[in-house]
Amino acid sequence: MSPDIVSQIIHHLFSIQTMVALVVGVVGGILVGSLPGLSATMAIALLIPITFGMDPVAGLTMLTAIYTAAMYGGSISAILIHTPGTPASAATSLDGYQMTLKGQGAKAIGISTISSMIGGMLSALALLFLAPPLSKVSLMFSAPEYFLIAIFGLTIIGSLASKSMVKGLTAGVIGLLIGAIGVDILTGYPRFTFGFPALETGVSLVPAMIGLFSLSQVMIQAENRGKNQGKKKALNIEGKVLPTWAEFKGIFATIIRSSGIGTFVGMLPGAGADIGSWVSYNEAKRFSKHKEKFGKGHIEGVAAPEAANNAVSGGALIPLLTLGIPGSAATAVLLGGLMIQGLIPGRELFTTHADITYSVIFGFIIANILMGIVGLLGAKYFVKVSVVSDAILAPIIITLCVVGSYAINNNVFDIWVMIIFGFIGYFIRKTGFHPAPIILGMVLGPIAERGFRQSVLMAKGDLLGFYFSRPITVVLMILVLIALFSPMIMNWWVKKGAGNMDESKSDGDVADNPTK
Question: pTM for the whole thing?
């Protein structure tokens, strides 16, 4: 990096707006993560409208800070009330809650915080050093490659964002159809606008995301409110939060190994933090000298999944920034945030917009450090938020949905878009679909269409021969085929993790009740 870029990075990072954005992102992410039922994806979708009027560095730094902090925040409720705030914290609840029952809840929080901070920082360093050279690959891309990259992203997210590959791909197709709304890119003729001039520029992405992820979640929580009346109360945290030096040395190798696993899993588009945390938990148990202690309140059982799920966040940003392929549902929404700021993933992010990109990456590193500090100081207060009534949360979230949807274009029509997509999101969730593939279809659909139609013109009648004559397109076609079959591998990973969870639970039951 040239001295000029370094000075710009320092100027961006240490501006008042960026510092405030970092604090808001970290604290807000921990709060959202500790609230069962809410997610980083939902928080990012809600706050994207706010970033529209912010400096790009401050806005994107806040979104990435929310992403990593929410991953950690899920562990607080998982450890103290046995209710994972995010799916990625399910593995943490096995040993974390057992530690709480033994009166070691404070120590479990401390281990979770330190592990999350180290995992996030190591993945951020991987992002810093791996993303720039990988972005050079995008220089070799033309219309055919962009078409296949878009298809690659769609097949991965579509196949892994729900339990059924068919449902995931169907949701992706729905997103493609929605992405086709607007003026045809070649003929200039309106498509599927039904006489609404506001639809000629296409469906507004941010209101659609807010509706699919945020409003639909409020509807589901309202429906389940009667079922959740027996909500657990937060326990008081007592004792020392920081582990002893001997305990830290004992789990250090586990943290480093799990961070590496999490970063790698994050780079695999579609795998997700829950996969990373379970794989790391399994590996920690396999390498441990005390396998029999897992599931009974063992500190390694807390350190491994927490280091991994925060490492996934940095790993998932690598394919996002270099090739525009989201590694998770949260990064799918972040892709929309990038595009709103006029930043297109690829080599330009590390050349033309290098000052912005590197500022965001360094901001991501600072966010993980700040997350550790805030987490250690405020855990006993954050856990109280996890038992806040949905009756209080729902009106606040709905208000943010309406304000955020209107703020993007100052257009009431966007509020109606948000409401309609809220109902769409509610019904597809109830029927076993996932909203992430729909958003990916809306984002990647126009890219795929443009790439394909330009490829047809470039091929001059021999489309098949044209594609097979280009080495990169052949590789991408193979990757697309692999992506279609990868759910079987991922399901095996999940089942293996679930099997260990059942085994750990049964061991814990025997320990609690020796008469069994």
Answer: 0.72
Using the Cα atoms of residue 266, residue 267, residue 268 and residue 270 in order, give the sign of their dihedral.
Answer: positive
Q: Which amino acid is at 54?
A: M
Q: What are phi and psi of 203, to 5 degrees?
A: -75, 130
Categorize the per-residue pLDDT at 163 as very low, low, confident or very high, splitting at 50, 70 and 90: low
3-state DSSP assignment of residue 190: strand
Classify residue 68 as exposed, middle or buried by CB count within 10 Å of its CB (0-12, 13-18, 19+). buried
Rounded Cα distance, 28 and 40, in Å:
10
Q: For residue 74, which of 389, 305, 373 has the smallest C-alpha distance? A: 305
**Mean predicted confidence (pLDDT) in 474-488:** 75
The number of folded domains in the chain is 1
The answer as to whether 96 is a domain residue is yes
| Structural domain for 319, as ranges | 3-224+234-512
Is residue 497 within 8 A of residue 91, CB to CB? The reply is yes
With 50 as the cut, is the pLDDT of residue 116 above it? yes
How far is Cα 219 from Cα 283, in angstroms, rounded to an integer? Answer: 38
- Output b/e per residue, 389-426; b: 16+ Cβ within 10 A: ebeebbeebbebbbebbbbbbeeebbbebbbebbebbb
Q: Is the pLDDT of residue 299 over 80?
A: yes
Write the CB contacts of 111 (distance below 8 Å, at least 6 apart in sequence).
243, 247, 251, 299, 302, 303, 306
Residue 34: closest CA among 82, 109, 88, 84: 84
**Residue 10 belongs to a domain:** yes
pLDDT of residue 243: 82
Examine residue 7 and state whether it is found in any structural domain, yes or no: yes
Helices (H) and strands (E) in the chain, counts: 20, 2
Total residue count of the chain as it appears in this document: 516
Asked if the structure places residue 229 within a domain, the reply is no
